[in-house]
Amino acid sequence: MPYSPLRRFTAAALAAVGALVLGLTGTPAQAAAPLDYAALGDSYSAGSGVLPVDPTPLICLRSKANYPHVIASRTGARLKDVTCGAAQTKDFTSSQYPGVGPQVNALGAGTDLVTLTIGGNDNNTFVGAVMACATAGVLSGGRGSPCKDRNGTSFTDEIDASTYPALRSALAAVRAKAPNARVAVLGYPWIVPASADPSCFAKVPVASGDVPYLRGIQAHLNDTVRRAAQEAGATYVDFATASEGRDACAPPGTRWVEPLLFGGSLVPVHPNALGQRRMADRTMDVLGLS
After folding, report:
1. Of 102, 178, 245, 262, which is the most exposed, with the fewest CB atoms less than 10 Å away?
2. pTM (two decimals)
3. For this structure, is 43 an active site residue?
């Protein structure tokens, strides 16, 4: 048969088409399954005060724009969000409100990822310290350290005596319910700066000498949370550097946490929408999520 360039081209084209058809009809590569992600914790995880609010249940003041939702939307994870404002460590294993079950009920052997903040409400640490120091600050006209003078080491003593063992128990319960999960325990972003800012007194009325005192209480709590997380084999997400200069005394658009007075949130002294996004950023960076 005489040589025919057209015949040769046609055969090659048919072979290429055949290979393409086989490739298209072969078994496709399996897409990675989305993470089964459970979010636990208190109002800093729930995003209390950040709109829009999740009405199920409304009593938890849970935001649909909290950091768990941000992480889930960026990773495609399947999210079970049981965060709840005012939660304490005990609410991981008992009902916080009627109809609101123990938070660890959201966990199981198939859970891949757990995130949480917890401990700040135990012993009324956050609310008690902030309100005690703000009240003392107003009465002193912002001078001295009346809150420290009156309360001394009482807040940190309670963290050591009560919050620390409660954290260990709560994290053990998380591990027991989700033995295969990666657990990330987040610290709390700074509420006040390292030293007094006179321009902030109208927003966070804490006396000049009590600003470092209040900051020290939070630092001690965060260190206690870190220690309990590491002992439980969890990853601790540290905001000490990331949230520096973004406390409640910083201007809008910079601060992650809203001030006690004249802020932009219905729930003061809590992370705003920017803070929730940045908490998600930092958590994803630490965990290597994309």
Report:
1. 262
2. 0.89
3. yes
